[in-house]
Write a structure and sequence with these properties.
By secondary structure, the protein is an alpha/beta fold. About 25% of the residues lie in helices and about 25% in strands. Strand 4, helix 5 and strand 5 form a beta-alpha-beta unit. The protein is globular, with a radius of gyration of 19 Å.
């Protein structure tokens, strides 16, 4: 294991087991170990290592909501290295991570090996149970997708090391198992649920898949269950104005979803691309 800090991707790739304590500004108030191991051949792993985390605004919003209201089950869909899960693992009762990338998964296992309340699956969580194709870049773990044939090129200011890897030869397509999210949730026991989605184009399809399920646990017979879901806004379906003020747009998809599930937009302001909805 190397604790030596390096300043460029070339030297980073020479490290045997690079790790970083993410979101150090929270370490004084957030309980538990925040150490994440990352792949030395991954550009995104390098960004996490260099910046001690890459999802500040989203993580802050997520952490504050989990701290404010009890969460029995946190489901991290598209966990990558676990930046979200590591921040809430000591706040919630259980964490379940889904990450189909075979290069990332061993590092995810190493980072969470000491936490008994975290369960990891090297699978995709989606709209149906099936075998499907998963396409990813061997040197950039972000953007892997079950529906996009070649994930979009990535950009990062001040870092020209990634250009060489944005070539066809660095992409792999493998078969992975996708689990139906409704079937999965029906097998879980909880009174409060938080789902974080990052599925590279599949977020809204998954949200629509669980619409009926969320409606049932929100307004069904007996005691209702609390739930929240964070997902990426699809600009082809939702405008930013519809997300911020869904009540002003009764024909919008997000308004219809909130009406059917008896929910509201809890946090629309932390990101231009993401939203949190809950009951």
């Amino acid at each position: 294991m190397s604790e030596k800090k390096v300043n460029n991707f070339k030297d980073f790739r020479l490290l045997e087991e690079p790790y970083v304590e993410v979101y150090k500004q929270f370490l004084k108030t957030v309980p538990g170990d925040k150490k994440l191991y990352v792949d030395p051949n991954d550009v995104r792993g390098w960004w996490i290592y260099k910046n001690a985390g890459t999802q500040d605004k989203k993580v802050i919003a997520l952490y504050n909501l989990c701290k404010k209201a009890k969460t029995d089950l946190f489901v991290d869909v598209g966990a990558n290295y676990g930046e979200f899960s590591i921040m809430v693992a000591n706040l919630v009762d259980r964490v379940i991570c889904f990450e189909p990338n075979p290069n990332v998964f061993p590092y995810l296992q190493k980072s969470f090996a000491h936490l008994d309340n975290v369960t990891l699956f090297r699978k995709a969580l989606g709209t149906e149970s099936k075998k499907c194709e998963f396409t990813f870049n061997r040197h950039y773990s972000g953007g892997g997708s079950t529906i996009i044939e070649r994930p979009l090129k990535w950009k990062h200011k001040g870092d020209g090391n990634n250009i060489q890897f944005q070539k066809e030869e660095y992409y792999d397509t493998i078969k992975v198992h996708m689990v139906d999210i409704v079937e999965f949730l029906q097998k879980q026991t909880f009174e409060s649920l938080f789902i974080k989605l990052d599925c590279e184009g599949l977020d809204w399809e998954i949200v629509k898949r669980i619409e009926g399920y969320l409606a049932d646990i929100s307004i069904g017979f007996g005691k209702s269950k609390k739930w929240r879901i964070m997902f990426e806004r699809d600009s082809k379906i939702h405008t930013r104005h519809e997300i911020v003020n869904p009540g002003l747009f009764p024909d919008s998809e997000i308004y219809k979803f909130c009406q059917k599930t008896n929910s509201t937009v809890i946090e629309p302001s932390f990101s231009t691309d993401d939203v949190i909805v809950g009951n």
